[in-house]
Amino acid sequence: MAADSAAAAHGPTAGEYIVHHLTFWQNKKPANVVDFTVFNWDSLFWAILLGVVTCLLLWKAARKATPGVPGRFQAAVEILVEMVDSQAKGIVHNAQSRKFVAPLALTVFVWIFMMNAMDLLPVDLIPAIWTWYYGVSGHDPSHAYMRVVPTADLSITMGLSLSVLLVCLYYNVKIKGLGGWVHELFTAPFGSHPLLWPFNFLMQIIEFVAKTVSHGMRLFGNMYAGELIFLLIALMGGAWSLSATGIGLAIGHIIAGSAWAIFHILIITLQAFVFMMLTLVYVGQAHDAH
Q1: Is 40 helix (H, G, I), strand (E, B) or coil?
Q2: DSSP the chain
Q3: Cβ distance 205 to 261 under 8 Å?
Q4: d(Cα 185, Cα 197) in Å, to the nearest integer?
Q5: pLDDT grade, residue 242 (50/70/90)?
Q6: Distance from CA of residue 47 to its chain's centroid?
Q7: Could you tell me which residues come within 8 angstroms of residue 269 by beta carbon, excluding any fewer than 6 positions away?
Q8: Is residue 222 annotated as part of the catalytic site, yes or no?
Q9: Residue 46's pLDDT is what?
Q10: Which residue would you say has higher pLDDT here, 66 or 277?
Q11: What's the chain's average pLDDT?
Q12: Which of 68, 222, 227, 269 is exposed most, by the fewest CB atoms within 10 A?
């Protein structure tokens, strides 16, 4: 009992701290590794909230757009729109398709940037608020889990990549026709000889699966690693004390945290841009005939 009391007084260990911050707020514990009945409520909440904020920001920019001298917000959005539109024109050559694909790419970029940017918040800020609410509402605060970076959740990033896959399948059928697409599945890339049909179909399926998995895993891996580094830096600040070593750790925590946050701005922007560009590339490939 004395040992338990001492452990509680000193707080969680470094491992327990990291595990707690990497645990999702779920509707139930998963029965196995792949359990489609388990929902990560925190990832869903922040993803949906930031998606609504993204749509409101873009709607506000479109609503307040003027032909005269633009304000700073309008100018920033116009630069972003022109950048995405130029990329879409260079990849998707069908003008009719670009009316949907270009706004889709813009929304994807801004939405993913917003979700990635949640990593710049102090790692204990929102979880601490959530833990406090859990405690005052009569629940066990030690089980108050709250992860605030949706793109550090594989289910979110894979959901985004699966959505891109569905868009690509739609354009494959729309542009080539159902018969033309099926013909392509069995005749590309090795040729139209009947003996090559099984190999062509297998390669096409492997290509779709590989592109979808890598699309989601790339974003997840980078954001998960960034989140983990922020947690490791936070441990430095948590270990401070009124000693030379403790003060050094506190100063190192501030310097390392600031440096990584500044560098991480590049990462969150780059990852949003890469995901958007791959979306355009995959949709553009759906327009190409083999």
Answers
A1: strand
A2: -HHHHHHHHH---HHHHHHHHT---BSS--SSSS-TT--BHHHHHHHHHHHHHHHHHHHHHHHT--SSS--HHHHHHHHHHHHHHHHHHHH---HHHHHHHHHHHHHHHHHHHHHHHGGGS-TTHHHHHHHHHHHHTTS-GGG------GGGSHHHHHHHHHHHHHHHHHHHHHHHHHHHHHHHHHHTTT-S-GGGHHHHHHHHHHHHHHHHHHHHHHHHHHHHHHHHHHHHHHHHHHT--SSHHHHHHHHHHHHHHHHHHHHHHHHHHHHHHHHHHHHHHHHHHHH---
A3: no
A4: 8
A5: low
A6: 9
A7: 113, 116
A8: yes
A9: 97
A10: 277
A11: 90
A12: 68
214 is catalytic: yes
Could you say which of 218, 241, 243, 258 is catalytic?
Answer: 218
Active-site annotation holder among 27, 192, 214, 241: 214
pLDDT band at 68; cut points 50, 70, 90: confident
Amino acid 62: pLDDT: 85
Active-site hit among 222, 241, 243, 258: 222
> What pLDDT is stored for residue 196 in this prediction?
94
Angle at 72 between CA 70 and CA 73, to 5 degrees: 95
Q: How far is CA 137 from the centre of its chain?
A: 31
Stretch among 13-17, 61-65, 218-222, 241-245 having the lowest mean pLDDT: 241-245
DSSP 92: -
Confidence of residue 10 (pLDDT cuts 50, 70, 90): low
CA separation for the pair 281, 100 (Å, rounded): 15
Q: Domain ranges in the chain? A: 2-287
Task: Name residue 22's amino acid.
Answer: L
Query: Could you tell me the sign of the dihedral formed by the alpha carbons of 172, 173, 174, 175, in that order?
Result: positive
